[in-house]
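User: I'm putting together notes for a lab meeting next week and I want to include a structural view of one of the chains we've been expressing. I don't have a solved structure, so I'd like a prediction I can at least talk through. The sequence is below, exactly as it appears in our construct file.
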Amino acid sequence: MNAHAPLEFSALPEWTDMRYFLEVARAGTLSGAARRLGVEHTTVARRVQRLEVELKSTLFDRRREGYELTEIGQALLPHAEVMERAMLAAAEQLGGPQTAARGAVRLGAPEVFGTLVVATRLAPLLEQHPDLRVDLLLLPRFANLANREADIGVMLDPPDAGRYMVTRLTEFRYYLYAAPSYLEKHGPIRSRADLAGHDFIDYVQDQLMSAGLNYLDDLGIEPRRRFCCTGMLAQYEAAVAGIGLIMAPPYAVPDDGRLLCQLPGEIFAHRTLWLVAPADIFRLRRVRVVWDHLRQTVEQSPGLFQR
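Assistant: Thanks for the context. Below is the predicted structure for the 307-residue chain, given as structure tokens.
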């Protein structure tokens, strides 16, 4: 098979084979595509190979680290995506505008927001739409919507290129918190000037998934970082243990007295969460239903985002 020659059809390929091609292109591995399709990886390999035979072209370079599109595969990709959009739109239209949403929606969200805000408030949505499934991706980075890793993304930085639906989900603030045990050892915080002598907990600086996580810079001091971690859940537990001060949004800190907010009217960092979806995917009812549920959830819980 030729990886560079123009496509030559020996027979019209089946749509299902094109779907397998799309998922391998997006996941980069047979196993990843198999998980997304709910089949064995051997089935994915067989269907991709059949498509290559039909097209008389090699669509992927098989490498140890995964599958990479050849030049011909890159040329085929947008056509396969057009076919996918048409099939999805047809399924939605045949289902009727008033039918319950059905199918899977992949939602990418920051770890703590997804765990404490999204997952705890999904039950009413799933009860209303019994054939809907939500796959929540709690990634160490924001979901890649360009390769369809997710249908909807909650992120700090909206895309500045491409065809996306983008809306401001909420304004929120990171506040300063301290454990009572920490304050007993290090003294009270009465003003911003007191921060210079304290220990801080933060993200690992060379692993930041967004410049928006540099919120300690908003304090106006050079923070003394004593413990850094790539996840906020671990940062929270370290703060509870008295290792140092932490900046966190209200939804990340239970009101149980284990952490106390310090000078909320004076010390905070303001940020924005955005809701993003590819424009073509946004037209699907199941995606819009999840999208609207997220917006409604945030609107009904303002105290989760600002004190």
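A couple of points you could mention at the meeting. The mean pLDDT is 88. The chain has three domains: 15-95, 103-170+272-304, 172-270.

User: Perfect, that's what I needed.
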